[in-house]
Write a structure and sequence with these properties.
heterodimer; A: about 775 residues; alpha/beta; seven-stranded mixed beta sheet; 26 helices; globular; B: alpha+beta; 17 helices; 17 strands; cytoplasm (chain A); ATPase_NBD (chain A)
Chain lengths: ~775, ~450
């Protein structure tokens, strides 16, 4: 059955300090703008959800209103930047012990400004119990929602919107958590909710699900029977006892029945023949630990067996486990996983969810917000505002655990546009954007965490410098530093806290933290200046290229793309040079490049291809602003256009480091068009199209791209994808398989990474791939 | 021979708890290798054990006291031929489970005067001892009500006796075999169950008895099919319950297993084995669960301090499990219509015991009842899922967990019918836990 559970008996926290241990305004954030609430009250934990809006500062770029080309002056920047306020939607979820419920409701009441909200959808076994309290405190009418419907709605939501939501758990392996890549189609699946009892639900579509079975032997049996057997009252303490026990003292094993013969028979003597089979005696005392362990195995095995039987009957292989029995407890995740592996002979995988505890609250919220149709949007987990998965140490004593979990937060940002798969992915279900899994690769993890730590002061400096007119920039930058630093420390100890740890997630977390403290675009002025310098060189570079013979020109264009890519403030090696020597030029960058043959060099194959018929349409993911985009990418685009290939140029929707944003790219293209008739006509005739990626990351996830981009790619029949830069072509997508030709280009501006790939700093990756027929 | 002599060494405070012990089995964490599953166990067990009885006797080392004693090679040949068809008395079948040893003994009633005269003393004394007593020591019991009369086996007429004693008294049994000089009668003893392996060495070194180890599932199937075919002294072996949920109207009715296949066989011993039987020789072990009779009795001992299976059942019969379990109606106030769950269904076994007040308010009888209901419902649920997966609609429940356990049988009957919407039928068999031992006896007699 659904989560109900503790009516008093084991509600933890009675020995804990009843006051809120964190400053409430850091927990209930953005409460003043909160519009809609939902609440899920379980046996011991309350989960509150609310929708709010966040006001951000964003850097907007705008072209100067020139009446004509001649108005341009040499000293003038190419466009103007203004900082504006933007309002975005965010979902807040807070999880806390039921003990705090009254204090929390009081706090919310005091800070609630919005009066439109009249009703609060509530779910969970405790919703009834606390109904009057909520109605009295918040002056909102409690609307009870069906527990299972909420759970399923919540489950669908996290599976669709949070990358790396689901994971398999493998005790004693490194890493313990193995996150799953999101499938485009999450249905059908089986949800096994282990609350006080067990409910097994088959979910077929967004709105269609069916209770196909259940069992009365669940978390309540472990808790209730465990309390009777061991006189231990609390669920967490029972689990702790179980983690220390030896079940073979209580259970009758196969070897107890067969003697030593099981070995010669090839039997596993350790199989349990009869749970509690040895306790059928009055002469013996059994330890609490042993009995708790035996009980844990008995219940986990039983749940696993039934889950497998139902999965088999309904031919499903994706089984998600949830409920308070599972909820992040390594002990039960382990026993359930073991049981599933045993009974399904490896055919079914036990999957767990990072935000399992929030499903009910999310579902109740969605139910209450149905007329806004929140499912039409894509959402993203905000790493800055979310607590991440709790420590998984089974040895952690229960009181500690309860304390550390006093308040747990999840924040999700509503993305302005829906995100979808790139239609050109060879196999969306097996696509993994990231090249290196840092949860798996301890050496790489150590390097990158240190790298990000060392780069932090530089980022802080740049953030402060980007807002010279702001009085509190230094203070905000200090807070940013503190936040990101603590995230890095969390990730050192719990690399699995936010899903698979990757260079991408480290970069994204930094961007989220910068945004959190109103540094929306620390590089806006640097980008503006570089774009200005590069635009001035554009014609000169193009003329030089045009003077070359065809074959020479192709190599020069390729080198140009790569040389441009050396200009990257995000890479420490380059930012050092750029800081000390602003005159560092395009030509010098070319000299820095490795001589051919490059580290990865399929240029000859590419040249061969260019001798053939033109591509129909190229999709290019641009990287940096300035020289990279203007002197590297645009001449290459121009050549493609001349060949008769249409070009879709995709740039980030929001800022990240010095990466060019979509709005910057529009201005740059306009300026180039003014100088170059080829680009001009291509823009006019829509043979050159500028689109946004939907992302604000220095990396690239081809499974979460702006829907408009995907539509265009389909319409135009793109048959070439060019991915440029270390973040997009090496940290991510290096191994991505596409259904069409692709070019992955990067200069390795990180000595460690270059060495890992077997080359020196500034090694070149020129990877041209043609899909197998 | 008196009871004391058989029983003396067995005088212990044991209990005649549940059940035979099939290789039920659930995984143990960490240790067990995944590759080793129970399916291979069955095959290995049958191939590793079971040397043909006749073959091993071919090299008979001892002079066998029996019907013939002629030294001539011709008469020897005749002895061998006859012997191959029909082994010498006594005829036993043994099933050594995790908790109980089940022994079947065929008592020939057609002994001729000549035979009687030639019958060796030890053989006679065994027969008299077993058939003239109903209890052996403090723990050995003959289930007189199960005795099958006037059975013809291998051309001999006689009665089949059913005896059980706790597995922990096995050493005493072997010692008795030694004292009675069993080895002078037989070199081979047909035995099944895990204990056939566990005690093999003891039989050999202490009792000078060689065990013929037989696969327990083969024996189980053989035993069931045979017993069903001979009936129960003119009555039907198989039965079912009509109106199982209604104490007034509930009726135990005979069931004729005309078309036994396919059949789901659920053997509830200390643990539970579930087999799908498609024909006499074609069956597979589908799964098993470690939540069986041993779990019921073990938990009852811990929760109530009871000491015998009978006591546990007696307590359960007086208890109220709804005080212990959390029902659907306790959570939803009635039926949970969204999912079609009736209010009386158990939502969480022992779920009320999460609350301190409710823990203090329950009696031992309530706890015993809840334990029984929990284990029984779970077995019913797993059996039902297996039946669905295997597409079988008749389910026969056997094993000593069901001995004098009408509550469990009626609950299984009701649960199967209710949750399958009448598609599945729960069947039971009078000789509950003795089929393995019968199968071992049939192996001895080489009855196919």
């Amino acid at each position: 059955m659904a989560e109900c559970g503790a009516n008093g008996g084991g509600s933890s926290g009675d020995s804990l300090d009843k006051s809120i241990t964190l400053p409430p305004d850091e927990i209930f954030r953005n409460l003043e703008n909160a519009k809609r609430f939902a609440i899920d009250i379980g046996g011991s934990l309350t989960k509150l959800a609310y929708y709010s809006t966040v006001q951000h500062k964003v850097a907007k770029v705008r072209s100067f209103d020139h009446s004509g080309k001649d108005a341009e002056q040499d000293h003038e920047p190419p466009y103007e930047i203004s900082v504006q306020e933007e309002i975005t939607a965010r979902l807040h979820f807070i999880k806390f012990e039921n003990t705090y419920i009254e204090a929390c409701l009081d706090f919310i009441k005091d800070h609630l400004v919005n009066t439109e909200t009249k009703v609060i959808p509530a779910t969970g076994g405790g919703a009834y119990k606390f109904k009057d309290l909520i109605e009295e405190k918040l002056q909102l009418k409690v609307d009870k929602e069906d527990v299972m419907t909420c759970l399923i709605k919540g489950c669908n939501f996290v599976l669709k919107n949070i990358p790396h939501e689901a994971f398999v758990y493998q005790k004693d392996t490194e890493p313990e958590f193995r996150f799953q890549t999101n499938h485009a189609n999450i249905f059908p699946y089986l949800l096994v909710n282990v609350g006080s009892g067990v409910s097994i639900v088959k979910v077929e579509t967004e709105d269609r699900f069916e209770w196909i079975g259940g069992s009365s032997i669940g978390g309540g049996t472990f808790w209730g029977l465990g309390a009777l057997l061991t006189k231990t009252k609390k669920f967490d303490e029972l689990l702790h006892l179980a983690s220390k026990g030896q079940h073979a003292n209580v259970d009758m094993l196969v070897q107890d029945i067969y003697g030593g013969a099981h070995q010669t028979l090839g039997l596993s003597g350790n199989l349990i023949a009869s749970s509690f089979g040895k306790s059928a005696t009055a002469d013996k005392e059994f330890s609490k630990e042993d009995m708790a362990k035996s009980l844990l195995h008995m219940i986990s095995n039983d749940i696993g067996q039934l889950a497998c039987l139902y999965a088999k009957l309904h031919r499903l292989d994706r089984v998600y486990f949830g409920g308070f029995f599972i909820r992040g407890h390594p002990v039960t995740m382990h026993t359930i996983t073991y049981s599933i592996n045993f009974f399904s002979k490896g055919e079914v995988q036990a999957l767990f969810l990072r935000h399992e505890g929030y499903l009910g609250a999310i579902g109740a919220f969605l139910k209450g917000a149905e007329h806004d149709n929140p499912n039409q949007y894509s959402w993203g987990e905000n790493y800055a505002g979310s607590s991440g998965l709790m420590s998984a140490s089974p040895e952690l004593c229960p009181t500690q655990r309860a304390r550390s979990g006093t308040f747990d937060l999840l924040e999700m940002d509503r993305l302005e546009r829906p995100l979808v798969n790139l239609p050109l992915l060879l196999d969306p279900s097996s696509y993994v954007p990231d090249t290196v899994d840092l949860t798996d690769d301890a050496l790489a993890r150590k390097y990158w965490l240190t790298c990000f730590e060392e780069a932090l002061d530089g980022v802080v400096k740049r953030a402060v410098a980007s807002q010279p007119e702001s009085a509190d920039a230094a203070e905000r930058a200090r807070k940013f530093r503190q936040k990101y630093w603590s995230k890095l420390q969390t990730l050192r100890h719990q690399p699995f806290a936010y899903g698979t740890l990757t260079v991408r997630s480290l970069l994204d977390t930094r961007e989220h933290c910068l945004n959190e403290f109103s540094f929306p675009d620390p590089y806006s002025k640097v980008k503006q200046k570089e774009n200005g310098i590069a635009l001035k060189c554009f014609q000169c570079v193009v003329q030089a290229l045009d003077a070359l013979g065809w074959e020479e020109r192709q190599l020069a264009l390729a080198k140009g793309l790569l040389a441009g890519n050396v200009f990257d403030w995000g890479a420490k090696a380059v930012s050092d040079v750029l800081e000390s020597d602003p005159q560092f030029g395009f030509e010098e960058a070319k000299k820095k490049l490795q001589e051919r043959p490059w580290l990865v060099d399929s240029y000859s194959k590419w040249l061969q291809r260019l001798k053939g018929p033109p591509h129909k349409c190229a999709l290019i993911f641009a990287d940096n602003s300035g020289i990279d985009l203007i002197l590297g990418v645009f001449p290459f685009v121009r050549e493609l256009l001349l060949r008769g290939t249409e070009v879709i140029l995709a740039c980030n929707s929001g800022p990240a480091l010095n990466d060019v944003t979509y709005s910057e790219s529009l201005i740059v293209a306009e300026r180039i068009a003014a100088m170059d008739p080829i680009v001009h006509s291509a823009l006019q005739e829509e043979r050159l199209l500028l689109v946004q990626t939907g992302s604000s990351s220095p990396c690239l996830d081809l499974s979460r791209l702006d829907k408009g981009l995907a539509v265009l790619v389909r319409e135009r029949g793109a048959d070439l994808v060019v991915i440029e830069g270390m973040g997009r072509a090496v940290h991510t997508n290096y191994d991505a398989a596409l259904r069409c030709e692709s070019l992955k280009l990067a200069v390795l501006k990180n000595a460690w990474l270059a060495e890992r790939l077997g080359g020196p700093l500034f090694s070149v990756i020129f990877k041209y791939e043609v899909p197998a027929e | 021979m008196g009871t004391g002599r058989f029983g003396a060494p067995m005088e212990r405070h044991g209990r005649t708890a549940a059940t035979s012990a099939p290789s039920a089995g659930e995984p143990e964490l960490g240790g067990a290798e995944e590759g080793r599953r129970r399916e291979p166990l069955r095959r290995r067990a049958s191939s590793a054990s079971a040397p043909p009885v006749g073959a091993s006797a071919e090299g008979a080392r001892r002079d066998r006291p029996g019907s013939y004693s002629g030294p001539a090679s011709v008469s020897r040949q005749r002895v061998e031929n006859l012997r191959k068809k029909r082994p010498l008395f006594p005829w036993f079948g043994l099933d050594i489970g995790g908790t109980l040893v089940k022994l079947v003994y065929f008592e020939p009633k057609d002994i001729t005067a000549e035979e009687e005269e030639e019958e060796v003393e030890s053989l006679k004394s065994i027969r008299k001892y077993l058939t003239s007593n109903v209890a052996y020591g403090s723990t050995g019991i003959r289930d007189v009500h199960l005795e099958l009369k006037d059975l013809t086996l291998c051309g001999r007429k006689g009665n089949l006796h059913f005896i059980r004693f706790p597995t922990h008294d096995m050493p005493a049994f072997i010692q008795m075999g030694r004292d009675k000089n069993f080895s002078s009668l037989h070199t081979v003893f047909c035995a099944t169950g895990g204990g056939a392996y566990k005690f093999e060495q003891d039989f050999l070194t202490i009792g000078d008895l060689q065990l013929c180890k037989l696969d327990e599932l083969d024996c189980l199937i053989k035993g069931i099919l045979y017993i069903d075919s001979v009936g129960f002294n003119g009555r039907s072996q198989c039965y079912y319950f009509e109106n199982p949920a209604d104490s007034e109207k509930c009726q135990k009715l005979p069931f004729e297993l005309k078309n036994p296949y396919p059949l789901l066989l659920v053997n509830i011993g200390s643990g539970v084995s579930i087999l799908a039987v498609y024909s006499k020789d074609n069956y597979k072990r589908v799964t098993g669960t470690s939540l069986g009779g041993g779990t019921f009795f073990g938990l009852c001992c811990l929760l109530t301090g009871c000491t015998t299976f009978e006591e546990a059942l007696e307590m359960a019969s007086r208890g109220d499990s709804t005080k212990v379990d959390k029902l659907v109606r306790d959570i939803y106030g009635g039926d949970y219509e969204r999912f079609g769950l009736p209010g009386w269904a158990v939502a969480s076994s022992f779920g009320n015991m999460m609350s301190k007040e409710k823990r203090e308010a329950v009696s031992k009888e309530d706890l015993a009842r809840a334990t029984l209901i929990t284990i029984t419902n779970n077995i019913g649920s797993i059996a039902r899922m297996c039946a669905l997966n295997e597409n079988i609609n008749q389910v026969v429940f056997v094993g000593n967990f069901l001995r004098i356990n009408t509550i469990a049988m009626r609950l299984l009957a009701y649960a199967l019918d209710y949750w399958s919407k009448g598609q599945l039928k729960a069947l039971f068999s009078e000789h509950e836990g003795y089929f393995g031992a019968v199968g071992a006896l049939l192996e001895l007699l080489k009855i196919p």
